[in-house]
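Hey all, sorry for the wall of text incoming. These are the four entities for the joint prediction.
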Amino acid sequence: MSVPYNIESSKYNLPASKRIPPIALPFVSERALKTLDVVEKFVEEECIPADVVFAQQIGTATEARFAAHPQIIEDLKVKAKQLGLWNMFLPRNHFSQGAGFSNLEYGLMAEILGKSATASEATNCAAPDTGNMEVIAKYGTEAQKQKWLTPLLDGKIRSAFLMTEPDIASSDATNIQLQITKEGNSWVLNGSKWWSSGAGDLRCQIYIVMGKTDPNNSNKHLQQSVILVPASTPGITINRMLSVFGFDDAPHGHGHITFNNVRVPLDHIVLGPGKGFEIIQGRLGPGRIHHAMRSIGAAEKALDWFLARINDQRKKPFGKVLSEHGIMLERIAKSRVEIDSSRLVVLNAAIAIDNADAKSALKEIAIAKVLVPATLLAVIDRAIQAYGGAGVCQDTPLAKMYSNGRTMRIVDGPDEVHMLQLGKNENKRAEFAAKKIEFQRIKGLRLLEERGLKPVDPLFLGRVSGGVAKL
Amino acid sequence: MSVPYNIESSKYNLPASKRIPPIALPFVSERALKTLDVVEKFVEEECIPADVVFAQQIGTATEARFAAHPQIIEDLKVKAKQLGLWNMFLPRNHFSQGAGFSNLEYGLMAEILGKSATASEATNCAAPDTGNMEVIAKYGTEAQKQKWLTPLLDGKIRSAFLMTEPDIASSDATNIQLQITKEGNSWVLNGSKWWSSGAGDLRCQIYIVMGKTDPNNSNKHLQQSVILVPASTPGITINRMLSVFGFDDAPHGHGHITFNNVRVPLDHIVLGPGKGFEIIQGRLGPGRIHHAMRSIGAAEKALDWFLARINDQRKKPFGKVLSEHGIMLERIAKSRVEIDSSRLVVLNAAIAIDNADAKSALKEIAIAKVLVPATLLAVIDRAIQAYGGAGVCQDTPLAKMYSNGRTMRIVDGPDEVHMLQLGKNENKRAEFAAKKIEFQRIKGLRLLEERGLKPVDPLFLGRVSGGVAKL
Amino acid sequence: MSVPYNIESSKYNLPASKRIPPIALPFVSERALKTLDVVEKFVEEECIPADVVFAQQIGTATEARFAAHPQIIEDLKVKAKQLGLWNMFLPRNHFSQGAGFSNLEYGLMAEILGKSATASEATNCAAPDTGNMEVIAKYGTEAQKQKWLTPLLDGKIRSAFLMTEPDIASSDATNIQLQITKEGNSWVLNGSKWWSSGAGDLRCQIYIVMGKTDPNNSNKHLQQSVILVPASTPGITINRMLSVFGFDDAPHGHGHITFNNVRVPLDHIVLGPGKGFEIIQGRLGPGRIHHAMRSIGAAEKALDWFLARINDQRKKPFGKVLSEHGIMLERIAKSRVEIDSSRLVVLNAAIAIDNADAKSALKEIAIAKVLVPATLLAVIDRAIQAYGGAGVCQDTPLAKMYSNGRTMRIVDGPDEVHMLQLGKNENKRAEFAAKKIEFQRIKGLRLLEERGLKPVDPLFLGRVSGGVAKL
Amino acid sequence: MSVPYNIESSKYNLPASKRIPPIALPFVSERALKTLDVVEKFVEEECIPADVVFAQQIGTATEARFAAHPQIIEDLKVKAKQLGLWNMFLPRNHFSQGAGFSNLEYGLMAEILGKSATASEATNCAAPDTGNMEVIAKYGTEAQKQKWLTPLLDGKIRSAFLMTEPDIASSDATNIQLQITKEGNSWVLNGSKWWSSGAGDLRCQIYIVMGKTDPNNSNKHLQQSVILVPASTPGITINRMLSVFGFDDAPHGHGHITFNNVRVPLDHIVLGPGKGFEIIQGRLGPGRIHHAMRSIGAAEKALDWFLARINDQRKKPFGKVLSEHGIMLERIAKSRVEIDSSRLVVLNAAIAIDNADAKSALKEIAIAKVLVPATLLAVIDRAIQAYGGAGVCQDTPLAKMYSNGRTMRIVDGPDEVHMLQLGKNENKRAEFAAKKIEFQRIKGLRLLEERGLKPVDPLFLGRVSGGVAKL
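and here's what came out:
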């Protein structure tokens, strides 16, 4: 098939490598620039058209949908590998197994991937595998790596990350209740997990599970451990999948899973008992950047759809296409302001991680985590409104995108947790700020004194008992 | 005076050079980093304490206030020159007369300057002189430079920029009406201008005036000229000053000025007749970056005051200091998110100008122009609310800062003009976006066909006359 | 089953009749007050618990879901009739067939009905039957009434209203394209409709169709006609149902329907050819009030769920239940402010209709139409956020409520159309406003003159050529 | 002067009595309707034109401004009395001395009064006299009434209410510190007050002061007393006046006052020691309604100015008057939605007070207190933006109105206090809400059981160890 829209030809259609904000350019290698354009061509011309095939190949009945593995995904994977688009997510600073890009460089690619339902998996850059691979690569034993990391890196199997639980406020990870108790040569797991994303896919063979090995440890951050649990281990039941605004996200899905005396060998623990909190803290940083950049891409896609709709010559309410109604141009502008500022925030956070690690980029990550979903939802919502009925139904990707976007305000910690953390950290500056202001006030008084001036209030009155006082 | 707060000592008090967003760092030279910290020390320890002296030295009655020139300004200028803090605003790419910094580097300094009422003038970086100096340096003749640029660069005189007019919609510069007609060896000016900022200062000796030399030119952008008019030219009357909310901004102020047969020699025109539009377009870009970065600084200052207030141990409504009431931490976090994202937007625009020129950075400048004042006003408003009565009156700088900030949504083009421009430009992509979406749809159908699949709607019903149709 | 929560006992649990805003009370009869409490008891104790049965009785596969008629609905209808809760929607001012309440009185009941998925149909007050019954009762012939109104009033059949079309901007009703041409003794319909809500239900036997009988009439509001079309007429195909986010709203649903030479007798037209626009204008007023009040009820329900969640003692992030985190109380308060102000707006519009008719209440209806969905979505969104994962999935009614609520910004005219109309109408006052302000200005000058005062500007300067002018 | 704009003639210019929301009409007597139109004519045709005279008669220098008493006020008072517009604020339910209107009826009048700077005082309905008169009329002794209430009712003197203090968080009235100690036959006052509005006026002869007579009382609400203090009592100093965004609000003003051994006779206490809290609670309810309705009037005035500006034919940015740019119509509509909904909220609160008292209308008053200033500021801000430079300076009333409006979010308790109270009260319903939801859930399960149905999750999977479980 020849390319029906010339990706080089128009100034309104610069390739991705030419659209990078100038402030980010010094951080992007020549190789990454080239790869970025390959990613874009692959996503726009191969993956997005394939999304509809994926949807058809999944089928309709729930059970079938969660047993499906659309062939189109494998077709795309072959192409992606041929193009060298594979495992771009593994940052070169920390891992040798990836494609050798920085978090920032991959972030720019993730933006493009975020425009398609199939592109992330097609390039083996799909959550939660990405974070899971990072965990095993960073903390796993050689045996763990051989058993699980190798097939994950090859895209042969998939994985899930089981942390959230239904019965507690799991926005606070110290509340986790799933028990991991040592019995002889085994760790025995009991409890339940939900929002186990990816668990619906029959190719999901390994669960990375967070639980408590030492629930009574006085240090709340040493109670947790992370353990590798093969999906086929007896005692595990995927009771049901969770919907997101009516969508089941099959075959990937979000599982509600119970563990009933699930036994795994002792060597399945990662890094050691009590290291769970440390592990997940490192895991979440880059993952949030990935989510955020994919969300930026989704917002750009929604804006594309918005533009297409408001200039549709067949749709003229009150005699004018929508873009001629002034409020629509304002909405475009708002979207552009929000998207561009959000992108800068994420890229800045990516660099902060690249420069050091996720822990030292807490503030930048938190800002990105909170700002981006708000932008995404606002932009999609405007597009939905422009499409009217077509915006909420199956005829545009918008309603599904909104549903995904809405979960971004919840997953990996709800907005409120990040805002609270941001607020608390910033508030630590308060004492210094107060001292500085007080110093400046006192020095001001001294400067006046040195000049023989009194600090007279601009509205000094000095009126006594109804009269006027003397100065 | 010994330093009462140790600018190096605390992790909550990193010097400015350590607070630069990581994404901006590659653009900042070692020299600029050092200068930045000198600027901060100068502003926090010298200028802000001096602000109160400035206020006292202006006096009270209107006429006196607009005849005042507070000595403290000259004292600060001496110190600033000693510290090498002079004319930092003139970008090294385009001018040899300045301190040799880029727009981005100066932007970071302007943020600090924006925290004080005296700092910008103390370092000869105050508007509108900055933009005026750029105009003369870039477009002026040698004679014009010698006469006006030299004393301006030395901080000996001040200047005003006269563009806005009271009787027209001057958000659209093509509406300008002041007449400039050639009579013999003179240009003769008739008309009126307002919001002539800086015209209140008796040291303001030169006006840069925009008017029409060719009002009937069919090209609306060739009708205007820019001309230099000495403030003492007969025929000029400063009728009154304009207040901002209830503030007069003396002695600088905002003048309402009439021109009645004001004659200047022919060589006072800048660049030539009909070049006015071209000149102001170049002038406004960097100026918007300066305004924006000073606004970022003002927002940081408001946040400092906010932090100081909500942790004031003497103020405990309902038994807790305000920071212990949850909503205050959320407001800190919102402010941090808004300030940090706005700063990135401005720095990115500064780099876009540094990389090429203001014209090619239109989008980035427009985004900064719109986003920053909204952030500034939101942050100040939260601080005002935390202070209650003290927030709106003379006891904090907040009400004055709010008033200044509110004008930022109006000066150099109101929000709406920039949003309209942003929206229109982005909308030019619409045709491409629509074509791309259509291509993807058609290619999707072909992919289905190739696989022998029909595109079945997920909610296909096919019910005929109350029954069910065949596929 | 005994009542497990005593609806009379607590001051936090006043019955609906005691929660009416005082300003609305004079408009509510004793009989309506009593009925309102019966409605509440029926909805809270019978209908909401039945919602889950309804969901189970629909089944899973698409085709089955749209062939289902859950028995629980019929069970509830029997109870509702016994309680005298039937056809309350038909306003007493205009119709004799209803329960004899005003629009305001029914509005208060609709609020309660809006809390349950089954309550509106159980009391024969479900859209679109309500509006359709009004149309036939008001404009129909005796034959039309006997054939369709009688079984509709009895709840024996259901109906759909077919106006919106997929290929045009149908927010502007003059764009409607479905052709209705006279051929011999028949009207022949060709075209397509979508968002035909209710068409999914097999009991839906009659379509009220809007189309064009006179597409070339120079008066754009005389081109349209409304015609009654039995669902079983040959040539009609329900191609598919439309989803709302991922929900299908079965069995009711939203149909995409084509008309291919569909023939109905000439007497099936309502009121006469060319009367279509007039009919729908009258139809939409009360319908918007119903939607709005049900939305108020939904918002109250979401707030109930929010309260339940933030006080859940099992969910303590960071050691405190959510309601002890300050921001949650602020969110409750915001929700209360928004709900209570929105309710007043709707009730005021209902009275405006009761006092005269929908046409003279255009402004009030438009305000309600725009304000209420915004309130509803804001309140639900807060609840979703408080529930986290449970908020977006099938474990709470919130995601489904949000989806419904989102369509409220689109159906019966998108927000933008109503805002445009409101803005245009209000703008007609501009000339008078300008004249009034000018009069006041001139009279002020005269008052000054009479007192021998000159209007001196507060910042008068009058400085000439660098000096100071004389007054 | 003949009426230059015919208040009866146009449908865009209905008199106030015809613009009352239909839902409020039953509460308005014929006499109030007539009076309302007289108020409107007086305000629009007499007071607003007089506002400029008032401003000129105050003068310029601070001391003079706070010694001024513009004659125009007395002229207007004569006219107002002739028209029967005097003391309309005293509600007929509780007082015999007023004009005999309800809080709702006066509320409608206060809306009109709120459009002028002079109208409230001209009709003796100005704060803080209104609340002060209510206090003395309700709680005062005969002697107190004769001495102070009579001249206040006659408009001969003015008064101030001294509650807020500079050194504490006085949003929480229990923090008040001013000491009132009994010494012999006197109460002796020591402490300081600020935001003592009205204290600037030389005619202000009586202060109603809140202080602590029993600071150690274990009941925090019995520590306070209210006491009458003549302004001329020795020991009182009005140190200075407080500005509001640069405005001094002279001669009324906001005083910062100190009490240094100020002695008043024992009989100057109101109602008795320890009754302070009770008194101010009753005082604030109607006052908040007055403020709110005046704010509604101010918002209407701002909208008038907005309309005048966006239709000004001399101001055409980009070739069109502003109202033809689509976003302006949307802003009109937003303003109309916000104003109309806010008005309903205030009127509903007024009726709640009329029906019983302020205490039982806490919720309704709090909603009005929070919602109205937000509306007012939003509407004025839009008008300022439309006017550009003219909007922030002395050429329109907008900047001054914004400044006043901004204080409305602070006076009589900041937004946050009211939101907290609203949130806490509403949260008391939580237990009931949770029980109701639980009841409904359990009853739903029972209904299923009765019908032999199992509650199957819509996405039931029941997959065990990678396979599929049996139901």
